[in-house]
Here is the input.
Amino acid sequence: MPRAVFSLVVVALASAPASADWPQWRGPNRDGHAPAARLPAKWAEMPPEPTWRVSIGEGYASAAVAGGKVFAIGRTDKDGTESAYCFDLVSGKKLWHFTYAAPFKAPDPTAGRGPNATPTVDRDRVYFFGLSGVLTCADVATGKVLWQHDCLKKYWDVPKNAAGDNPYFPACGATASPLVDGTTVIVPVGGKKAGAVTGFDRATGELLWKALDDRSSYAAPVVAAPAGVKQIVAFTGTRMVGLRHADRELLWEQPFKAHFEQTIIGPVVWKDRVIIGGEQRATFALELTRAGDAVKTKQVWKSDDLKLYMTTPVVAGEHLIGFDHRTGKLVCLALADGATAWASPAFGTKHLSFVVCGNTLLALTLDGHLIAARFSATDYEPLARWKVSAKGTWAHLAVAGNRLLVKGPDELLCYELR
Here is the structure.
């Protein structure tokens, strides 16, 4: 793709009306972009000191930012108490918090003991989804709990399968961040009682609908309209699916048999294509076409250069940027045909999260380094490397205006970019 065309895309992103909020998983549009980010014209060699830092407990959940407030969640004791917090964005002052019992421990200790799902803020309400599946709706202003479901007790209390496992509950705990769609909160609950994709009433918490009986996914769903059909695109534990938005009926499916049914990479939609990857397999693109009331799928390209594991890729113009788990590099693919446009130098880490801010990319590595880089359709240029978390982190970076929110193993740090 010519650089001039790519530049036009960047200008369009920069000029679109945008809030400096980061109200949910992967940003205001749930796509890994921070359109209202305010970054330094020149990056200093050393990072600034954190504006504030607070201890919030264990977990890999990213922060959410809305209306000058920061929302976060963590595990605060060994017995399994989860705490939900609200802080002032500027000062870090705690405005409110509440706790609840969540004694669940993941069978795999490397999965961590704390909550991993980013809170979702929608107008006057904020939604938290804890590691053991406690879904909570709280008032943004006061922190008052308005409704709460313990999904592990309410929906996952089922007979174990032949292997001795719960056939629906994700083995490493609930990690998918709630999606607010109008008056509905959508989460992947899993199983026959609540469905692999589940809709709750935003105001009351009433279960409105359920779809499919699969195990739930670690990946958060999205709402999009590939092939001109509005639909909920989501991973279950065994397949990527498109559910017609109007009635949640299955429009299409793509089997994806993962080890322990661990589907992690969130769906990425570009025009009429859905990008699918994970478990260090070749990333591929499905093209969706409408045939009457049906939707047909066809694989149009596959890339062995990009093999994803835990980091959902980001669309940038006509390209896709993703983190190749084998090589530890960022890889940029042309979305039209899957051809590799460029690969970054190796980061020396097996995991990172990243955010696209116009033509600048911010990446947060597992060892707590923030890498800033400028990129185009043809190249990648590092700008800075800052140590922003002493102990490193698996949590996703959050970017709100000129502030960066970094979740370390047990604390939340806020950096102001001047």
The helical segments are 3-15, 151-154. DSSP finds two helices and 32 strands in the chain. The radius of gyration is 20 Å.
